[in-house]
Amino acid sequence: MGVYQELVEQGESGSERLVRVEQCAERAIVTLDEPDRLNALSARMVIQVKQTVAELVSDPAIRTVVLTGAGEGFSAGGDLRMMRLAKDRLGEPEGATDVWRWIRYEFGGVVRLIARSDTAFVAALNGPAAGVGLAWALACDVVVASEKAVLVPAFGRLGLLPEVGTSWALTRRLGYQGAFAFFVGGRHLEAGEARDAGLVQEVVPHDELLAAADRWCDSIAALPAHSLAMAKPLLRAAADASWETALATEEFAEPNCFTTGAFQDAVRGMLEGHS
Length: 275
Hints:
alpha/beta
C-alpha cells in the first residue's frame, strides 16, 4: 500500500470527530477541534475538513462558512507524524509522487473547494496559523484575526517551500520581496502586522472574534445571491489577469446583472426615493 492510500485509510478510520460544524440559516461555522494538539492537520483531520467543506459548498442554502480553530490555536499545520510516515516511505516505487497525491488531492483539495465555490469563506484566526493551516486561511475570501493570532511561516525552517497556494497569496499581497522576506526571515507576524501587510482584513479583541466574523457574514448575506456567485470568481481571476482582460471580463459579466430582479428592484427604489 502506498503512502497516499495509507493516509486516506488512516483519515477515514475511527469514529472520533475532529471537526465541529454549526449551522444557522444560510451560514455555517467549521471548527478544527483538536485543541490539545493545536489543531495539527492529521490525516483524520484533513479528510474530515475536506468532506465537511465539500458538503457545505454543495448546499445552495449555505452562503457563508466561517473557518476557525478550537482552543489556543487556529492550526499548527501539517502533523509531524504524518510527515515522518511520508519521509520513511520515499524509497518505495512511486517515491515522492505518492506524497504529491496527498498534497494535491487532500491538502490542496481543501483550498480548491474554498476558491472554486460560490460560497464565501471567512477565516477567523483565534491563535497561531502555520503551514497548511495558514494556507487554508489565506485561501479564504476574508481573514479576521483575534489580537492573539500569529501568522507562522513554518515551512522554511522545516526545509519546505510555501505550499498549497501560499506562494500565490503572499506574492500578491506582499510583492516578491515581501514574500521572500517573510519566507527566509521566518519571523512570526502578529495580528496587527498581518493586517498592515494586507494578509488580514480586521483585528479584534479575542472574545469578539466570532462576532466579527458574523458581521462579515451579515455583509455578505445582504448581497443578492448572484452578486456573490459572480463577483467571487471575477475578483479571483483578476488577480492573474491583465488590465485589458479584467476589463473585458467585467464588461461581459455586468449585463447579466442588469437582468436580475434584485438590480431592477434596487433601481426602482432609488428612483422612487428621488421622485
